[in-house]
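Re: the request from the purification team.
They wanted to know what the chain is likely to look like in 3D before they choose a buffer screen. I agreed to run a prediction and write the result into the notebook, where they can find it.
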Amino acid sequence: MNYLENTKVALQSVRSHLLRTVLTAMIIAIGIMALVGILTAIDAIKASINSNFTSMGANSFTVRNTGLGIHIGGGGHRPKRYPDITYDEAIRFQEQFNFPSTVSISTLGSQIATLKYKTKKTNPNTLVFGGDVNYMMTNGYTIEYGRNFSPQECQDGSYRVIMGTEIARTLFKNEDPIDKEISIGNGKYKIIGILKEKGSSMGFSGDKICIIPLSNVKQYFTDRRKSYTITVMVNNALDIDGAVGEAEGLFRVIRKVPLKDDPSFEIIKSDKLAAILIDKIRDFTYAAAIIGIITLLGAAIGLMNIMLVSVTERTREIGIRKAIGATSSKILIQFLVEAILICQLGGILGIILGIAAGNAVGMLLGVGFIIPWLWMIVGIILCLVVGLSSGIYPAMKAAKLDPIDALRYE
């Protein structure tokens, strides 16, 4: 009996015990779906992080007073915190930094602001940033329609605002928001631009923010201590390390930090943040693999039980096959092929469901369709291993049956 005939016999057995086979395959499919689905979702999250945090390009970095404090699950560390970067220090840096680049200064005005237009208002979770003329360029934002701040508006601290698309949809469903006046706190601000939709990443929505002139925030948002952030975008990405070194040297001079001492500020490249976040997410990859393997272990035990029952039910059939010339090795191969076939059917279904589930997460994050070739191959190999490990004992038991005893079996 060749492998093709063994496969045909296995398919006949599958059809004759369809419900049992479907239930067993579904257990395997759930395990593979958990593995492929979670890992595909993690790939989508990684793609979203890369897209969002490197949207400014590999040629930008920020100078700030806090380090990176990234907490995912129970891991992470407390961010280093240094003395606030004052407005005067930031301005001095902008004026004295001569490296070929674009420099912007920004600060957070509020993270619990409520924006109002007539009777409509947003939830009290809108971020208000103060930025200068270069803020859009250095922070990866694009104005979809309207305009940027003029140098005069930034200098005068004019009541002008550029808002994200989510806020615009909330306050202006059927109206053109440009040149409309909204309330932010106690101030009335004229809308001059709407940002291009950016999407969300790791809980932060780039469409639920508004930007007002930096000097306006400095003058009117006085309810909290402010530290200013300096963002630098170099003209040539290959010069990024040189620019970082020059920026550190200049800011040491501005803050009067001797070379022998550690700097009292943090310089963070945009791609470094993405790399750290992706590194933290690696733990989820391990957890997903463990979940999938545990589920497959349960499926393997279930499949072995089903195959043992099948051997018992087909004892007379095995005796007849041996009586007409089937060798023990042929019987062994037949039952192994049947176990592997059930596993592969479940695996294929699990891969399809896993890709669908993982890409559903990707759609929520605004990431394109992902085909996880690596995890698909891993899933197929795991199904093969499960089929072999679950089927080997029942197959050996079937192969060792004495044909005389098997024929007498009732």
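For the purification team: Residues 70-76 have pLDDT under 50 and may be disordered.
Please add any questions underneath this entry.
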